[in-house]
Amino acid sequence: MTVAARQTRGRPLPTSHGSGTPRWTPAEQVWISSAGLLQDPDRYFQALTAYREGDVDDIVVQVARAAMAATANGRSLADTVTRTRARWRETIKARSDATAWRLADALFAQPVVNADYVARSLDVTDRGARNAIDALETAGILTAATSARRQRVWQAPEVLDAMDAFARRSGRRN
User: Fold this and answer.
1) Is 55 helix (H, G, I), strand (E, B) or coil?
2) CA-to-CA distance for 172 and 174, rounded, in angstroms?
3) pLDDT digits (tens, 9 = 90+) for 49-77
4) Which one, of 93, 94, 127, 88, lies nearest residue 106 by Cα?
5) 120: left (phi over 0), alpha (psi -120 to 50) or beta
6) Which of 156, 158, 170 is nearest to 28 (CA)?
7) Whether the Cβ atoms of residue 174 and residue 167 lie closer than 8 Å to each other
8) What are phi and psi of 154, to 5 degrees?
9) What SS3 class is residue 69?
10) For the chain, which domains are there?
11) What is the C-alpha separation between 115 and 158, in angstroms, rounded?
12) I need a surface site. Which of 71, 118, 124, 147 has the fewest CB within 10 A?
């Protein structure tokens, strides 16, 4: 799978909003809940058909089950993100005000980056972006996803793995 394909899957990860506690936006919550409906699409479509014919019971049951599954899946993802971030806190060797810390937090929303993206999104110079990337690469948090010297791309494998596990638990099919 290409880096670009992994980058554009559109799977949300909770953001910490600086508190370290993962939180999803309302739009992400709807996405996560709808993913639960995809675990058994045949049953979901049967329930929709029954609903259109006036029987609401099946669709209510399907949505409730999907919400329960999505809640469990979301909690699992939040737990993984929290553990990953705690591990990173122990691994990153940088000043407390270093850009590397902000980049580490940003990777949960955008796990595939290049220096231009980091500089723009964190409002730092190109050198500042590269220093942050270097610090996270040294810590083993980022790995080079391309071998090119120009326009190099880095990825956070732990975040991508968490996203893939979330998708598998959701029943997402490619």
Assistant:
1) coil
2) 7
3) 998 999 999 988 888 888 888 888 889 99
4) 88
5) alpha
6) 170
7) no
8) -120, 155
9) helix
10) 23-170 (1.10.10.10)
11) 20
12) 147
What's the pLDDT at 36?
66
Which two three-digit tokens encode residue 114?
């290049």
Terminal CA-CA length for the chain: 12
Mean pLDDT of the chain: 82
Which residue matches tokens 């939040």? Answer: 78
Residue 144 bridge partners (DSSP): 154
Place of tokens 């998708």: 167
Tell me 10's DSSP state: -
Contact 92, 139 (CB under 8 A): yes
Report the distance separating Cα 143 and Cα 153, nearest Å.
Answer: 9
Q: What is the pLDDT of residues 111-124, one digit of tens each?
A: 999 999 999 999 99
Give the sign of the dihedral formed by CA 39, CA 41, CA 43, CA 48: positive
Phi and psi at residue 144, in whole multiples of 5°? Answer: -65, 130
Which sign, positive or negative, has the C-alpha torsion 171, 174, 3, 19? negative
